[in-house]
Amino acid sequence: MTRPQDFPGTVNVRPASGNQPFDVAADGGLYVAQGTLNLFLTRKDSARRHYLATLGPHALLRTARDTVPDGWRLLAVGGPETKVALVPSDEIPATANVQTLDDSIKSTVQRIADAIAAEPERIASLSAQQREALQGAIAGLATVMDGSATPFRPSVTQIGQLTSVLDELGGYLGVTFPPVDRVTAGDSDVIQMQLRAARCRSRVVTLPSRWWKRPGAAYLGFAENGSIPIALIPQRAGYVMRDPADGRVREIDGDLAARFSSTAYVVYAPFPEDASAGAISRSVLKTVRGDLGWLLGFGLLAGVVALVTPLAVAAVFGSVLPTQASGLLAAVTALLAGAAVTLALVTYTQNVVSVRLEGKVAAVLEPGLTDRLLRLPSEFFRKYDTGDLAARAVGLEQIRQLVSGGVLTALLGMVFSLISVGVLFVYSPELGLVALLVISAVLVALGMLNVRSVRQQSTALTDMGNLTAMIYQVIRSISKVRVAGAEQRILARWAIRYRAQQRATYLGSTAQAWVTAITAALPPILALSFYASVTAGFAGDISDGRFLAVLTAAGQFTAALTTLAFAIGPLLAVVPLWHRVKVILDEPAERTGSEQPGALTGKVSVRAVSFAYPGIDESVLSGISIEVEPGEFVAITGHSGSGKSTLLRLILGLDNPTAGVVAYDGKDLRSLDASLVRRQFGVVMQNASPLPGAILTSIVGDSGATEDDAWRAAEAADLADDIRRMPMRMQTIVGEGGLTFSGGQVQRMMIARALVRHPRIVLLDEATSALDDKAQAAVSQRLEQLRTTRIVIAHRLSTIRNADRIYVLEQGRIAEFGTFTELMAHDGPFRELARRQMATPKD
User: Fold this and answer.
1) pLDDT of 709-722, one tens digit each?
2) Which of 132, 250, 446, 839 is most solvent-facing, going by the fewest CB within 10 Å?
3) ABC transmembrane type-1 domain: from which residue to which, for each copy (predicted)?
4) Which CATH code fits 687-758?
5) For 730-752, what is the HEC assignment?
6) What pLDDT is attached to residue 328?
7) What torsion do the CA atoms of 171, 173, 179, 184 make, to the nearest 10 degrees?
């Protein structure tokens, strides 16, 4: 052990606490006078530390400049009481016990280099696992397959089989599939085409283990190595199929399941076009009819079993006690015990069936509403704030939660407890009449209070929607709020809306409190009415046993009514919730043609197009005509508000022109399946932002593209070098709205997303406005290398300098068009735009 006095010179000891790390780079020795010192190896371009060793008190480490390789640092980090000294080489005692880290440093550098080389593969593998796990958790019905299914192309002999399978699947889902003909069967993926024709959504999934014993969604599976399509229909205990050999329906077991491919389609039925409450209820009933029948049956059985109690009370007090009949008492006791066990089993089974029913209802409602939202026309979303619309969209799920489960059980219990009211009339018609009058008066009072509660809940939900919309807007614009110093004004606006919402909630809760109070008072009121009736002689000569049986039956009914009263409050929210979600369901879905567009060549025609927003007489666009040939680069420019973005929306089919035609390859867009046309686009809209998640996910989306495709798209968008400099590369997390990235990086990420599908047509709306001149030039150069049609909207003229044609819009009309050189050659709107951008300030 080396002591300070062992050194020939003076040792300058200094503190080396944990918050003051330092580089060990000089030749000589590092002496720990007090405490402990941790040594780490770090790369100069990274903050990550790699542990090497810990030096204890009085340890001496020999250091040299060439010990640490280029690009690395040897970092020393001490504890709270650590003190160290740097000792020159010539002052290190010959007898000192000197430590070295040469071997540790070399092995650590090699280990880190190997890890860095394997990092991309590790990250790719981890990413694939995370994507599969995340998609499986969201889907919840089956494990999502990483990739896409091989398209099924039926032979001539299989066309009839596929038609029969789709008819069987459609019969279960309540949809009609068009017949498969020879032309249709030649499509690249006939199944997807048939599903789209029937407006059904689907997912390709990997069938879970022992799937045939866990009924859930309906599958379109494949037998015999994927050559024979089979409809797999869920039943109460498993799945059944129709054998293509003999047409018989067979229950699927393990041996039969082994013949199926591991991948299948999960098919979701859409809501009916008339998405009324009755139509949606009928759609749900097709799926849950069997479970609902079981639930009703068990509810009726529970009501009948409950009759045992008043009958036993009448027997005990009317016959057993007066006659001291011990044998009859034993029989009554056994009967009550059996009734208790039966009622417990019935209640348990009811709850199990209720849970299964909830799952089936959710499997119909949630995909149906999501599909409905995705099919709504774009003008619908301009009518509502995003926050309010999101609150409305979850309304159907809230209704399902309110109606299902305990509320439904309580409602059925109340209905079947009416049997107990019948018992009152059997034992004493007079007391039954008294009970009926009291219950009727109570129900009238409860009805009036519930009407008031529904009115207040409706107001509260509307206020909550407005409040949610405001909060969403504030969160999205929080930077602007802070820059403007508007926090106090925003808080004041929020407080006003929150107070209104809370006031309506309070009034509704007050009404429900009265409902609960009146229901709780019903049993003593009924008992008091019975006692008064008997005392007044209204009930005639009634025995003690029969009177007690009447009290017991009345108690059973009031208990069921009390349970329902506690559940009725949340159930009443169904009415205002339905009125809010009905706005979504009443909106007609986007109308598109059914003609298949095929592979687009890139030819786009805009012929005499005019457009005006509904309810506004003045046209936004008038008489616009543009011709774009395959592979051309066409630019659209003009002042703000001239109609450029509106024209792009018309080209995309997001809005329909009030006059004129938008055509692709000579076919009117209104006659084509717009979704199939848009699948061949690469689009970057103005102010587009990435989805939260990894960069890879943001670029690839649900396109099925690989990470290699994402890198190629990033190269085309001049983003790849930026991604390589990030520690996690393609797995770097993108926050909400891409706030952790620069505006230029976000725009290039959106361009990469647009290019990853290898689109036939690329449409960019101010997609490079946040880039500097150098980055913008690099992106433009890479885009010019693509063999695809490009339609670009831009204010910056350097973006469109190399366009084959430039169209200049003014007040919704084409003012002029031509090449950059042609437009600059004469005095016009374009030259004026150029002059403003090229002007330099005078001294």
Assistant:
1) 888 888 888 888 88
2) 839
3) 294-573
4) 3.40.50.300
5) HHCEECHHHCCCCHHHHHHHHHH
6) 75
7) -150
